[in-house]
Amino acid sequence: MKRNRQTLESALRDLERQHLKRSRRTVDAFIDADSATGVIVDGHKLVNFCSNDYLGLSRHPKIVAAMSDAARRYGSGSGASHLVTGHGVEHEALERELAAFTGRERALLFSTGYMANLAAITTFADRNDQVLLDRLSHASLIDGGLLAKANLRRFAHADAKAAAHEIENGDSSHGVIVGTDGVFSMDGDLAPLPELAAIAKAHEAWLLVDDAHGLGVIGPTGRGTVEHFGLNADDVPILIGTLGKAFGSFGAFVAGDHDVIELLLQRARSYIYTTALPQPVAAATRAALEIIEREAWRRERVLSLTQRFRAAAKDAGLPLGDSITPIQPILIGDSEAALITSRKLFDAGFWVAAIRPPTVPRGSARLRVTLSAAHTEAQVDALIEALHQAVSVRAAAL
Questions:
Q1: Rounded Cα gap, residues 341 and 281, in angstroms
Q2: pTM more than 0.90
Q3: Which of 20, 63, 97, 398 has the most CB atoms within 10 Å of its CB?
Q4: How many CA atoms lie within 13 A of 326 on its CB side?
Q5: CATH code 3.90.1150.10 region(s) in the chain
Q6: Could you give the residue range(s) of every CATH 3.40.640.10 domain in the chain?
Q7: CA 6 – CA 156 distance, rounded (Å)
């Protein structure tokens, strides 16, 4: 793109014309009996159905208190990178607890999930290696492969046979990483981890799983898709998790055996050359982890509400995706239609984001509904009614 004002204006007009221009809205919270899922946007009081706060922990008083207490003791910022003076006692304790939670020898904290994925790919792959990613993998995994300058290829979504084909038809004389989301963030479906693990072992490849949307929610004890499928650390040697979703906090981590984590610590540029998370954030996450392990009802509730939503949506004839997780896409197709439907829901008192390309493939714009343990049955039922009216009006107008 040439550096001139006309080119910039043209690019912005093109996004507007295609109904792909993004916009931010400033969110405020309100404090009353419904505050766990309530937000105020542009003066409108809305029920939030597009947050990743699956267990309703982001406003939990014990987590807020843990952050506040730690801020009084340690201050608001870490002041340096982990390898200088930024690694504190709360970081150290949280890494140990996350390793135990995921059944790994060690864990390493990162400031964001994006940085964790960049670190994992670039540390374990270089220009001589293959990086094979599910076609719907998160953008950060794709960018990690590009940054590593590896032989990056993408296999058909959730197709283990396609992954095997890519390995067998590539140069496997060097290293191979097979990467995937555990729960796909825009579709809510699960990766075929048992099949991918078997293929990776058969070809002496690394299997990397970004379980950002699975940890805390999926599996008999909330330990994610790896637990859901009965796999272990040997099956999935590189596990990435984020802390800003079910944990209700912020940050991310990579978990693995001792040498995996040690090499990340020594080589991962997105770990070495950035300021460490503030210790109050780590303290809040430790409190969240304790609640997740102790209060199984939160996981059970959000999954129960998910089933309720799906049953009612099917009865209403809504175009649902195939997902058993709290991520429930309502498939619209056209980007403009998705925006219009989202606005109708906004006017009805519900915040449900319209997801459009390039976040999802062209022609697959959708409303991304997410359920939380903090929602009520009445809120879910009211959303279904509003969705039914909004989608029916759109269909009648076609």
A1: 36
A2: yes
A3: 63
A4: 32
A5: 21-50+296-397
A6: 61-294
A7: 39
Residue 110: strand pairing partners: 252
Spatial separation of the C-alpha atoms in residues 358 and 135, rounded to whole Å: 13
Q: The tokens of 220 are what?
A: 């008999």
Q: Which amino acid, residue 96?
A: R
Single-letter amino acid code for the residue at 351? W
Which CB contacts under 8 angstroms, 24+ apart, belong to 294-300? 296/221, 296/222, 297/373, 298/55, 298/56, 298/57, 298/373, 299/55, 299/216, 299/217, 299/222, 299/373
**Three-state secondary-structure class, residue 367:** strand
pLDDT tens track for 149-171 = 999 999 999 999 999 999 998 87
Which residues are known catalytic residues?
A: 185, 213, 245
Chain segment 65-119, per-residue pLDDT in tens: 999 999 999 999 999 999 999 999 999 999 999 999 999 999 999 999 999 999 9
331-344 pLDDT per residue, tens: 999 999 999 999 99
At 226, is the secondary structure helix, strand, or coil? helix
CATH code: domain 21-50+296-397 is: 3.90.1150.10
CA–CA separation, 117 vs 240, rounded Å?
7
Residue 57 CB coordination number (10 Å) = 29
Domain 61-294 bears CATH identifier 3.40.640.10? yes
Distance, in Å, from the CA atom of 202 to the CA atom of 149, rounded to the nearest integer, reads 25
Q: Give the DSSP H/E element, type plus range, for residue 252.
A: strand 252-256
Q: CB within 8 A of 252, min separation 6: which ones?
A: 109, 110, 111, 112, 113, 115, 116, 212, 240, 241, 242, 243, 244
> Are 100 and 289 spatial neighbours (Cβ–Cβ below 8 Å)?
no
Quickly count: other Cβ atoms within 10 Å of residue 337's Cβ. 18
- Collapse the DSSP code of 29 into the 3-class scheme (helix H, G, I; strand E, B; otherwise coil) and give the result: coil
Cα separation, 344 vs 19, in Å, equals 16
CA distance 137 to 189: 12
- DSSP secondary structure string, 38-106? EEEETTEEEEE-S---TTS-TT-HHHHHHHHHHHHHH-S---S-IIIII--HHHHHHHHHHHHHHT-SE
